[in-house]
Amino acid sequence: MEKDDTKGMRKIHKIKRSNRAKARFLSLALAFLLCMSGMLLTSCSISKSATGTSASESRTAAKKDAKNALKPSSKKGESSEKTSNDTDSDKSSSKTDSNSAQSETSAESKSQSSEDSGNRVSFLAVGDDLIHDSVLDTADAAAGSKGDSQYDFRPIYQNVKEDIEGADLSFINQETIIGGGRKGYPCFNSPDALFDALGDTGFDVVNGATNHSMDAGVQSIRHEIELFRNSPMTLLGLYENASERNTIPVVERNGVKIAFLTYAYGLNSSRDRTHVSLFDEKRLTDQVNQAKTMADFVVVSAHWGVEYQDSTNSMQEKYAKLMTDLGVDLVVGTHPHCIQPACWYTNASGHRTLVLYSLGNFVSGQKNEKSMYEGMFKCSFVIKDGQKSIEDARWIPLIDYYQARQKNAKELYNFSNVQVYKASQFTAELSQTHGLTGFQNMEVSKDRCLAHTRQIITEIPIEDN
Fold first, then answer.
1. How far is CA 188 from CA 111, 132, 252, 401, 414, in A?
2. Structure pTM?
3. Which of 205, 254, 331, 337 could form a disulfide with 355 if both were Cys (CB 3.0 to 4.6 A apart)?
4. Residues whose CB is less than 8 angstroms from the CB of residue 75 and which lie 6 or more positions away in sequence, other chains included
């Protein structure tokens, strides 16, 4: 009986071992199937995510990453500015030598870093951000109670924010000084909330060298410089002291280096040339030549011309020829408060320069029709197979909008709701409610804007849809 029991027990153990083996096999098989299912789900999720992200969203995210990477650590533009010329100070001279060495290294390596890969940088530029009292009133109303010294300029730019954020690099001419005050025409001083709005809207490069730079004195220039000191935005053309005038900002995107220079024709309120970059043939020549050793492309912001004139003057033409001869790639013109021609020029070496004589205003409260018709410029800086070029250059017409009441035949009052629109967004209703429509026989409309733009801009495509 004991023997039979033993045989029975052995048989039972064999069955149990067999069942355990089967169970382990089934468990492994189930785990394998679950793993494969998870991989397929992950693959589908990744595929859906990739196809669901638009090109514009990708560019905006990449631009924000680039901005964060370019934030200066302690001094203005440490990550994006290099010194171009020696100064009398031993300290400044040491800084110059260090930056010159960086420039030489950059010149040797930039072919490997960008030319072979065929890199492309999308660029956008707009004109004069002219903060009149009507613009201040609009920002005041947007921030809460009128007269509470609180301002929100962001709604003014909201209709074109997507374009500005979508470009790898966006430029604006900040016509009025951001000195922390609240003054409109004629001696401007704009509040700090304007600086916040420029960053929120997506601008990367801000020109500060204009005829209004000294309207509120040197202390306001220093105030604006301090605002930009630890900002990802690059400020052009304003200096705390003479030694800073020798710096050349270089901004890098997608492995492409772009140097920015700026010059203004003069100042309204001062003869002090220390704190603002003004036109000077020798200085411009030296800086352009230096910038060409530091960067792949050279862009010059030119604050020049005669206000409210569609045509160029002799000073503009003189400097346009000089910059073409020197091999500047792009000239972005501002100041006339109306648009002027965009022209391609070729120098003796075959290098092409695109000169935008004037983009007109971007935002203002001015009271003449053609100052309402503005330009947004777009292009791409491209390096491919060792060749550098500007591609996809085009002009997008803009319209400056505001509401106002007519006091009499010569005066408007109660300005409000200042905004900038692309002409393609400008409806018949906006035309009818524009403050200038019906004033002194004026009519601000999409059709009139496009007709005016086509008359002036003839050498680059106009994008109006």
1. 44, 8, 32, 21, 20
2. 0.79
3. 331
4. 229
